[in-house]
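Might I ask for a little of your time on a matter of protein folding? Here, with my thanks, is the record as I have it:
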Amino acid sequence: MSLPPQFLDEIRARVPLSRVIGRKVVWDLRRSNQAKGDWWAPCPFHGEKTASFHVDDQKGFYYCFGCHAKGDALTFLREAEGLGFIEAVQMLASEAGLQMPERDPREVQRADRRSELVAVMEQAARWFRLQLQTGAAQAARDYLARRGLDEAAGEAFGIGFAPDQRQGLFNALRSKGVDQALIVDAGLAAKPDDGGAPFDRFRGRIIFPIRDGRGRCIAFGGRAMDPNARAKYLNSPETVLFDKGRNLYNVGPARAAVARGKPLIVAEGYMDVIALVRAGFEGAVAPLGTAITEDQLRLMWRISPEPVIALDGDEAGLRAAMRLIDLALPMTGPGQALRFAFMPQGQDPDDLIRASGAAAMAGVLDEARPLVDLLWRRETEGRVFDSPERRAALDKALGDAIAKIPDKDTRDHYSAALKNLKWELFGPRRRDGATNRPPPREGWQGRKGQGRDARHLPVQPSEPARASRLSSPQAGEHEAEALIEAMVLAICAVYPELISSVEGHLERLEPQDEERAALVHDLLSGSQSGKGQRALEKIMALPQVIATPFIWKSVPLSEAELRLVNTLEQLSARRAVKREIERAEAEIVGLADEGLTWRVTESGRARQQADHPSLANLSDLGEDSDSRRAFLEAALKNEIWRKPRR
């Protein structure tokens, strides 16, 4: 029906928005300014305790800073009350004391037809309910009893029975004067192709009424009693009243429960919803015989910002979850999230509750995982990433998936979460999962009393490690480079989060010691070897390592990263000087004696320590660095490595 804009504006002007919404919320009067028409309250669309829902009477709009619901009075009545547009206008017009404009006769006819169909559906629901008490329904009652559904449950959910008769319901409705066309249009009967009399769509089934957000019966679901039936569950066909992709089973009561603080739980079937509600999880709903649709997701998010998808613990449940990823990602964002709770293998919520009680179900819900975890599971489960190409393919798949997320902040958080998960998969392994860092290697233990973020430290070094030459304070000068190398490996072992950022440097480290080479391989691959562990014990026994505070005391990761980079730069500079000296020595072969070669070597060392004073802490043996620098400058000035011309 087309309505004049002036009429709608007049309605909005006459009925303050706060009056419409005030019937559903409790205003926060301390925060509200009634004189200015500025109102605040907890949001009626998602269960919250803080007043993040704002109503502006002057502008005629509301907005929730939590779930981002927004609109005017008509929008609110349609979203919160489940009214159609015309119904919402009629309600506001009545409150404003205005007459509705003359309606299009065709629109009137359609609205009247909907009302007639609803009346027929309600009659059918009552008839199905009565049939459950007959002798023909004994097997159905026994089945419900085995599933733990008593009379109270049957009454609460309107459970009924369709006898195995070709025209049982059809004849019952016709006897009450219901037109044959209405019975067929409501989806209760089907007309055969040969033009014969219509026959009941539901026969020999337990019946579950499906109601919209306003509680009106719009469809039925039927569970077959015959194990050989072609379909175990059968729903009404789509009709003027019923669009299975836009509705949810038990949506009205669930919305009310979520408003009282209950979580919204999405199960797979009617029996699961009933079992959940009876166990105290009153915010339970289910899709209607199909995979979750975009419209159903939007409906869920209007009820709760983070529904929990409770899927059966079988392959079908997992496949359903995986299909939902691609549907949800382009729609997810602040106030529109999903969590996934997986039942134990072979069980659905109904099975779990009957076998282990509500506490077991609560435990499964507490373990529900966010959508990002499910995405990771889909892209990694059962796959091996033992080559750069395979890891690159994983990066591309994850990147393509999160690129669908429209909200930038949400995309950034997904990227960060996936980066952490990749680190856990490819980085060094640790035994516990207490922190965001990878679990400690074998032989590592946490410091007592430091809590879950404590630094994991190596055990006391073994005697062979203590006896290592590098652990001696009298280590020779030629071992200074090995000591810097040891410091690099120590930092990487204690702060394994940093390895990914320096992989290239570690690959070029190429230790001469076989055990250290094994340790480098362990750090890069996330594996563990006996040789690598022995190298780590020896390194941690070095006095210089023991005397380094940030190795044994937790510091911010950024500070540890700075130390690691500086140490690598020192090692790189030392090796560069060494290469220069080797080239100089090669040029003066046959001209310079061993003393000159030694002096060139010493000059290189002096220049390095002058340019990098911090290296003196690792390798200075007490010699006068000023004299070294003077010698170096003289050597450079005289170019002593050049051969004299003959």
Notes: The two ends are 109 Å apart (CA to CA).
